[in-house]
Amino acid sequence: MRFENQVALVTGAASGIGRALVQQLVAEGAAVVAVDIVEEALHQVVTDLQAQGGKVTGCVANISADPDVERMLGTATSTYGRLDVLCNNAGIMDLMTPAADVPLALWERVLGVNLTGPFLACRRAIPIMLEQGGGRIVNTASEAGLRGGTAGTPYTVSKHGVIGLTRSIAFHYGERGIRCNAVCPGGVATAIGAGSGIPHEAGLAKVMAVVPLQEVSYPPPELLQPRQAHSAHRKCGSRYATQS
Ligand SMILES: NC(=O)c1ccc[n+]([C@@H]2O[C@H](COP(=O)([O-])OP(=O)(O)OC[C@H]3O[C@@H](n4cnc5c(N)ncnc54)[C@H](O)[C@@H]3O)[C@@H](O)[C@H]2O)c1
User: Fold this and answer.
1) Which listed site, 3, 123, 127, 217, has its alpha carbon 20 to 30 Å from 150?
2) Cα–ligand 1 centroid distance for 40 (angstroms)
3) Which pTM value belongs to this model?
4) Residue 228 has pLDDT above 70, yes or no
5) What domains lie within the chain, and their CATH numbers?
6) pLDDT digits (tens, 9 = 90+) for 167-207
7) Three-state DSSP class for residue 7
8) Over 90: is that where the pLDDT of 153 sits?
9) Which residues' Cβ are closer than 6 Å to ligand 1?
């Protein structure tokens, strides 16, 4: 198994892509610290996997708060003695709001979770990995980190920032055994848009106008059950792809 005897920490573990990441890492032998801000949903993911014999520890934390980040990394080292893989995956959307209409609070919230969060985690994980002789960091960026036409301004800026963070860490620490990469998914039907507020009407319309298939589709509910999340991702990804 690829991750046998390895320890991984995944943020945003209670839902969507993060939940699928935890399941895959556990299935491939890793011991995982699963982190999320939503306690009840995280508890469900952790107890389900533990019931199947997986090595998983839950940690409720807000990744944009440094004391929480210190505690979540401490959970990995105190529970499992090391940290081999850090997956900075937790993120939130921005209601598709274009720059001139972005309230400062929305800007700070999105940048705080999507960019400051991964930075804080990397800042604390790197010394642990250097002391061990290496490690891997995988940041969930987005297609919005590569283009301007897939989301509002805060989300787009935050994901461009995540790519910069990834490149900088790879540059500065690659020779010392730390590999840092980003993944840039297209649209995946997860909970990310749910409950965050009413989208900016004009911003949403402009983004949707460049979606080639001109529709948003969701997989049947059973595909969004935990174990199928990965395949749901594959089935839905291309439908949201944009060109700008
Ligand atoms: N779904 C998509 O279309 C898509 C596309 C590209 C990139 N992404 C990125 O993938 C990542 C995962 O998103 P998802 O689609 O699975 O969304 P999701 O909403 O299903 O899952 C995100 C998880 O992050 C958690 N979270 C949010 N804020 C947090 C915080 N401050 N501290 C700790 N946990 C927090 C949420 O509680 C949730 O469980 C995000 O970084 C997102 O930007 C998603």
Assistant:
1) 123
2) 16
3) 0.91
4) no
5) 7-229 (3.40.50.720)
6) 999 999 999 999 999 999 998 889 998 877 899 999 999 99
7) strand
8) yes
9) 11-12, 14-18, 36-38, 62-64, 89-92, 113, 140, 142, 185, 187-188, 190-192
Instruction: Report the alpha-carbon distance of residue 42 to residue 64 in Å, rounded.
Output: 17
Of residues 90, 32, 40, 33, the one with CA closest to residue 65: 90
Q: What is the chain's mean pLDDT, rounded? A: 89
Torsion region of 226: left, alpha or beta (phi above 0 gives left; psi -120 to 50 gives alpha): alpha
For residue 3, give the nearest of 23, 25, 36, 35 by alpha carbon.
25
Summarize the chain as % helix, strand, coil (round to 5): 50, 15, 35
Q: Please tell me the residue having the least CA distance from ligand 1 atom 18.
A: 192
Which one-letter amino acid corresponds to residue 9? L
Point out the residues that are catalytic.
155
